[in-house]
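During the second half of the funding period, the structural biology subgroup turned its attention to how the target accommodates small molecules. The most pressing case was iron/sulfur cluster, which had performed well in the primary screen but for which no bound structure existed. We therefore specified the complex as follows and requested a full 3D prediction, including the ligand pose.
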Amino acid sequence: MLYLHDQFPALYEQLLPDIMQQTIPRETKANCSNCGMTQRDSALGAAQRHLFRADTKCCTYYPRLMNYLVGGLLQDERPALGEGKRRMRERIHSRIGVTPWWVASSLLDQHLYNHAKDSFGKAARLRCPYYASDEGACTIWAYREAVCSTWYCKYEAGKDGLNFWVSLKGYISLVERQLSRYAMLRLDAELVLDDAMNAYYGQEGLTQEQLDGEAPDEALYARLWRQYAGREEEFYRNCYEIVSGLSALDVQKILGLDGRIKSIDVQRKLDVCKETELPDRLKLNPQVTMRWLESGEIALSAYSEYDALALPGIVYPMLVAFDGRQSLAETRRTLQREYQADLADEVLLALYRYRILEKAEADRRPASPGLPPFVIDSAAHHTSDPRGP
Ligand code: SF4
Ligand code: SF4
């Protein structure tokens, strides 16, 4: 078990104590220091339909770092963050994607990310500017944002784990947005009230300057930054000072009703992850993708194209017995009778968490005869934007 605050920038421990004191399952299957998604020859890699480049891993994503996280990074004197600070200062100096609200990608990079096809984890062009390829590490780890803090390629609790982390991403994204706006409001209300951000981001298409990687024009940049133009680093540090000085109660008020609703959703999804009881009826998910491996095992996946479960080949015909018409206990008796075998509780739980078996409602009508039991290695579950906004 792990505390949630171990997963996030340190300042959240004091700002969001209710959420951050929760214990969570450790995501041991996503071993980032020895990334299985880059290892074609390992047992884990062999079971995957998609593998990532070793010099990007899953960091083919450009984070949007809120003003106070940028400030936190810049004020942090730990030597390990020196390279991250250098990269961030280079970025600020370029003025591209640099606003009082955040430091983000250029609109060109955003466009490429949004329109890239089957490139996540594969295209060097999409590599994060804070990723150190030589070490395979993030240079700004202590101040990473919501998406980077919550994304995994695999989840201990399968689909339920994915649901939890996605919910948490939504909550922390709200926290980031609101705290960042709050800091702007405190420093200069016009930074929030003026619609300069819309002028910057709201236009259709890409301009010549954006295509050629040039800074925004002087007038727009001056309007965006007001008295802080040329003093961006000072501004970001001030934002960090303001946000890190807030109490948990202050943050609750700033987040309001939306924060409350989202935090309840996070809690519920976390509770489901810890649940070990199986539904009374299970049926084989017709959308399961199945591949035979050289080892004689089968790799099954359903909830994610990055997470396959490798099982002995003997399990394959047994899964078809799960048609949702019998209770779980009855199905297990059928397996014992017809295969002289059973599936252990933990295997059934894994099959359910991966949604290879899914919950079935009580229904004793005959199963539809034309339904194919498996999708053989199809791209049916491909998502082009795995990290999402
Ligand atoms: S989360 Fe990313 S770095 Fe970690 S194991 Fe998965 S692909 Fe590799
Ligand atoms: S900020 Fe760090 S974790 Fe996030 S994409 Fe970049 S290198 Fe990866």
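Two results from this model are relevant to the next phase. Residues 2-274 form one domain. Residues 59, 61, 63, 128, 130-131, 138, 140, 144, 148 surround iron/sulfur cluster (ligand 2) (CB under 6 Å).
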